[in-house]
Structure to design on (767 residues):
């Protein structure tokens, strides 16, 4: 914020919130001494994941074009297809995109293995005054940093898992919001009322997606996925306790058929006011507070993940942007990455409810906080959760296999299988896959 | 066999031309045959098939050979490929999940072939009779077939929802306890079959209806004169005569059912757990989620063998059901 005064900033945000893009804005940004036009005339392709962040970047890309004179072509691809497309293109040694949007929990290690993303550290020296690496939260930088110290992406959004609860149902039974796992279980039992069509707890039961709910508990029980020798500890007592809690909550106080529930089924039940609690990623506040979709507008309580015996830890997912190592226009691609993860775009992200920024400044910016329409309890829960978070999945290359193997074990538990046996089986099945991936702690 | 007829005509013509050539050698059956087969003599015609041959090689033969080749490697995208011989096949033979996927595929396929054949044939018999509003009702019956599989799968997923789905609401009106539908391991495949039957029975009806319309009327008149009952007419005249058409429908259904992916992927993704994971779903997982290209190629090869074997059985049945010339 070198040359940009607070006043200008305020005007800027107000203007962009009110009328979208203001024509005078790019010139203003260009005034701060940094030469944004250094790659004018070049053309870059940006591969975005189809989600609110992808949407936001695409909507504002004209502004970047005006600012830099770089022509941008961008595409938004649904998450699953995006993962397939990027891995196949990177593997071929030629990418159709210069900038790529990645989800850390799924792709970080895979991209690192092939050194498919450009190390951005040398570019930081050449960055604009607006760019301030220290301003990114530690969780975000941890996600963006590879094992060998390379920082080959910049975080856009951090998504901690939080607890959503129905305040009306809680008040009716005189239950307080749970602060730890014991209270969570007790509340679920107390609020579970199938005769009235209300379940105590809803969450992901479908294989693959369900793993993140189990690992959220696993972190709270103090679990470590893999030790320094590369041995899995997923069937440790933390793993078993977490899986037991998972099974008890969903099987005994969850909806019928929960083994087939993904976030969308869980969301629709919660939206209807038929679930007392729901634990999932933090991005669901917009639909829950949308009167055209939700019957629980204004009745939703937002809280950090309840604490486990090892403390209050939220499982964290996140997405970021990186520059393809095969890009012929790396300078232009870096400019885009810097702009997209810059303060202004991060503030817009929070203001529009598109996600929880990886930078810290938006959370303290009064204009942004005033512009954003989500309840303050949500913002409070998210910003606090980010501070006490840990990656929700082990940062390994075969992360899809991990989700598949443990996902099936968890679904089997919901079907009545023994927790410890299933976890042992899954661990025995996954250990060779992990070994084969060349995992090094 | 129209292709054979064309081919033999083509060869005959080539033969005449080569014989009429003034420098052709001494006549003789074996020499003539040899000449017919010699590429040099066929050259004016050979060029006509080159484009088709190239396309065939490029889009069928090459991918096939390459798949076979890849199935001999341990290759994960992003890592180097190592030649492992038949190890992928051996590991598949010991992979209980893959063996279960084969069983799920067979279970799904049998139901998804037999049930539409029964319902489609019954529907064809009904619509073959004249009754008021027949045209409109027949048109309505065909509607499911015209819908996009992914779209109808999403609608069915909503209908199956245990708490908010319309199916459980309908059951509650009848005083029946709610079901978990596709959200239960035991019911997942039968429910997926239900969607398939709903969508594809109309196709069977169309094929059988065409067959019924083409049947000669005299056997039916003769049977009526002889005093045969409706059941006897159906059992001994209609069914045997329409059977070849039903078998055509069976072949089409078999191929469709074996390759079903979209509805299963959208509705259950092979779950709960692996309860409805068919070979296609398993293959997709190996190839596009785990990026295990070698193993996935081996799955394709095994799947191909299975499809060919099942098709041969059906073709054999179809030959048997054909009207005899006698």
């Amino acid at each position: 914020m070198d040359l940009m005064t607070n006043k200008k900033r305020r005007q800027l945000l107000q203007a962009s919130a009110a009328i979208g893009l203001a024509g005078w804005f790019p010139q203003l940004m260009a005034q701060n001494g940094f030469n944004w036009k250094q790659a004018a005339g070049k053309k870059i392709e940006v591969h975005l994941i189809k989600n609110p962040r992808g949407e936001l970047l695409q909507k504002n890309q004209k502004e970047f074009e005006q600012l830099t004179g770089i022509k941008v072509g961008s595409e938004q691809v649904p998450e699953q297809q995006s993962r397939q497309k990027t891995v196949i293109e990177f593997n071929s040694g030629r990418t159709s995109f210069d900038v790529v949007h990645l989800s850390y929990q799924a792709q970080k290690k895979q991209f690192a293995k092939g050194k498919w993303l450009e190390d951005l550290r040398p570019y930081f020296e050449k960055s604009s005054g607006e760019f301030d690496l220290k301003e990114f939260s530690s969780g975000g930088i941890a996600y963006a940093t590879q094992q060998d110290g390379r920082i080959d992406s910049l975080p856009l959004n951090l998504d901690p898992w939080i607890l959503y609860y129905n305040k009306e149902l809680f008040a009716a039974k005189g239950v307080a919001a749970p602060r730890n796992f014991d209270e969570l279980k007790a509340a679920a039992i107390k609020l579970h009322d199938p005769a009235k069509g209300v379940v105590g707890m809803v969450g992901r039961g479908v294989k693959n997606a369900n793993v993140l709910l189990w690992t959220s508990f696993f972190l709270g029980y103090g679990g470590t996925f893999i030790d320094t020798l590369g041995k899995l500890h997923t069937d440790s007592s933390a793993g078993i306790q977490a899986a037991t809690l998972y099974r008890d909550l969903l099987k005994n106080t969850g909806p019928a058929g929960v083994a087939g529930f993904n976030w969308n089924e869980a969301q629709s039940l919660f939206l209807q006011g038929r679930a007392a609690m729901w634990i999932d990623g933090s991005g669901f506040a917009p639909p829950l507070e949308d009167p055209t979709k939700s019957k629980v507008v204004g009745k939703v309580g937002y809280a950090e993940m309840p604490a486990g015996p090892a403390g209050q830890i939220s499982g964290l997912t996140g997405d970021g942007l990186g520059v393809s190592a095969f890009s012929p226009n790396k300078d232009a691609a870096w400019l885009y990455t810097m702009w997209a993860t810059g303060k202004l775009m991060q503030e817009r992200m929070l203001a529009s409810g598109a996600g929880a920024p990886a930078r810290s400044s938006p959370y303290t910016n009064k204009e942004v906080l005033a512009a954003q329409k989500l309840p303050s309890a949500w913002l409070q829960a998210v910003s606090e959760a980010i501070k006490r978070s840990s990656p929700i999945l082990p940062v390994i290359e075969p992360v899809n296999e991990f989700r598949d193997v443990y996902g099936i074990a968890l679904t089997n538990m919901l079907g009545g299988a023994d927790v410890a046996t299933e976890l042992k089986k899954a661990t025995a099945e996954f250990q060779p896959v992990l070994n084969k991936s060349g995992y090094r702690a | 066999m129209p292709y054979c007829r064309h081919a033999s005509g083509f060869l005959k013509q080539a033969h005449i031309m080569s014989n009429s050539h003034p420098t052709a050698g001494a006549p003789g059956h074996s020499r003539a045959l040899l000449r017919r087969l010699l590429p040099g003599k066929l050259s004016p015609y050979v060029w006509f098939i080159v484009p088709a041959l190239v396309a065939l090689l490029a889009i069928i033969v090459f991918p096939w050979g390459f798949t076979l080749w890849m199935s001999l490697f341990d290759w994960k995208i992003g890592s180097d490929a190592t030649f492992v011989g038949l190890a992928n096949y051996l590991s598949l033979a010991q992979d209980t999940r893959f063996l279960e996927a084969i069983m799920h595929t067979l279970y799904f396929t049998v139901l998804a072939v037999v049930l539409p054949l029964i319902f489609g044939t019954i529907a064809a018999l009904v619509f073959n009779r004249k009754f008021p509003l027949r045209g409109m009702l027949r048109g309505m019956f065909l509607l499911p077939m015209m819908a996009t599989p992914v779209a109808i799968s999403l609608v069915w997923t909503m209908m199956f929802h245990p708490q908010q789905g319309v199916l459980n609401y309908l059951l509650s009106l009848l005083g029946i306890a709610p079901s978990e539908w596709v959200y239960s391991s035991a019911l997942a495949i039968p429910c997926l079959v239900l969607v398939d039957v709903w969508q594809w029975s109309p196709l069977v009806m169309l094929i059988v209806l065409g067959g019924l319309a083409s049947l000669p009327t005299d056997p039916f008149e003769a049977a009526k004169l002889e005093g045969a009952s409706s059941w006897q007419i159906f059992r001994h005249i209609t069914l045997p005569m329409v059977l070849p058409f039903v078998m055509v429908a069976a072949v089409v259904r078999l191929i469709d059912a074996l390759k079903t992916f979209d509805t299963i992927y959208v509705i259950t993704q092979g779950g709960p757990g692996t309860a409805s994971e068919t070979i296609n779903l398993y293959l997709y997982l190996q190839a596009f989620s785990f990026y295990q290209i070698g193993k996935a190629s081996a799955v394709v090869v095994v799947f191909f063998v299975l499809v060919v074997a099942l098709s041969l059985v059906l073709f054999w049945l179809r030959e048997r059901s054909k009207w005899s010339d006698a």
